[in-house]
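Annex B. Sample input.
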Amino acid sequence: MMGIKDKQGALFSYNINLEERVREDNPLRVISRQVDFNWVRDEVVGLYGCNGNESVDPVVIIKLLILLFWDNIKSERELMRIVPERLDYLWFLGYGLDEQTPNHSVLSKARKRWGKG
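Annex B, continued. Sample output.
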């Protein structure tokens, strides 16, 4: 079942607002303003079932792939180790400081499911 990432406020507040912590001229802000990633869901909706566990939002997967290539990160495992450390990455993906980020295997599973396009 295809999941959709919902930007949710943190259950406990540490007075850290990612919106305020990511500088206005951060390149990821520019990408986020310029690109509507919602098209991804329409492209892959037929590749997901109607029951079972909810997947990681395809928009998040595309954004992870962008980060992988944007910063020339050598592997998916390395990317997923970096994501929780980078406030701008978390902001770009729509995750909060307390949220669990996806496992590295999500990317390879998505590529296998989606095909070469």
